[in-house]
Amino acid sequence: MFWGRDLPGIGKQRPLLIVYEEAHAYLPRGGTAQFVAGYAGRAVRRVFKEGRKYGVGAIVVSQRPSELDETILSQCGTFFALRLSNSDDQGRIRSTVPDTLAGLIDLLPALRTGEALVLGEAVQIPSRIRLPLVEPRPKSDDPEPAKRWKEKRILTPPYAKAITAWRHQRMAKPLEEGGDKNG
């Protein structure tokens, strides 16, 4: 982005957004020796500190804001905070808002599914919003390895079908009973 910033369609003319999902797992507070000293850690910090100058933005997604690296979290200008019941996580969000608005953080444990508090540069005033829920809803139940490992193994799972469904954003239809189980 730096070296091509004056070329059409690059940099601020065509911003890039990097999403760090489950960021607490690899952008930890205090950092592990590998993260702090490693190239990846330095690169991520640089994106957060300087990226916006060159059209590179970042979204940090975490269910545990109290476990995130302080340097990275301090560079975030807007927060979408969904339901948080852990007091450490609430405290981390509370520390990002002015004292006059800290009372809003008390709402975090009471938010419903799909509700969020939006705080920061993207909004004129902190707001409680309702986000559209994804359909079909994710299935968050745990797998049953002992049960599944007893079943006959499918030698060639229909990966191509799953990838096509992903690209079209439609659920793949399960195979019919007695149909071809290999593709």
* Structural classification: alpha+beta
CATH topology of the domain at 11-130: Rossmann fold
| Main sheet: strand order | 3-4-5
User: What is the C-alpha radius of gyration, as a whole number of Å?
Assistant: 21 Å
Mean pLDDT over the residues: 82
Query: How many DSSP-defined strands?
Result: 5
CATH architecture field of the domain at 11-130: 3-Layer(aba) Sandwich
Descriptive account of the structure:
13% of the residues are buried. The radius of gyration is 21 Å and the shape is globular. It has a domain at 11-130: Rossmann fold (3-Layer(aba) Sandwich). It has six helices and five strands, in the order E-H-H-E-H-E-H-E-E-H-H. 25% of the residues lie in helices and 13% in strands. The protein is α+β, with helices and mostly antiparallel strands. The protein has a three-stranded antiparallel beta sheet with strand order 3-4-5, with no helix packed on it. A two-stranded parallel ribbon has the order 1-2.
List the helices and strands and how they pair.
Blueprint: E1 16-20, H1 33-37, H2 39-50, E2 56-60, H3 70-74, E3 78-81, H4 87-94, E4 115-120, E5 127-130, H5 145-150, H6 159-168
Parallel strand pairs: 1-2
Antiparallel strand pairs: 3-4, 4-5
Label this structure with key terms.
three-stranded antiparallel β-sheet; 183 residues; single chain; disordered C terminus; 5 strands; Rossmann fold; alpha+beta; two-stranded parallel ribbon; globular
Short description:
The chain is of the alpha+beta class.
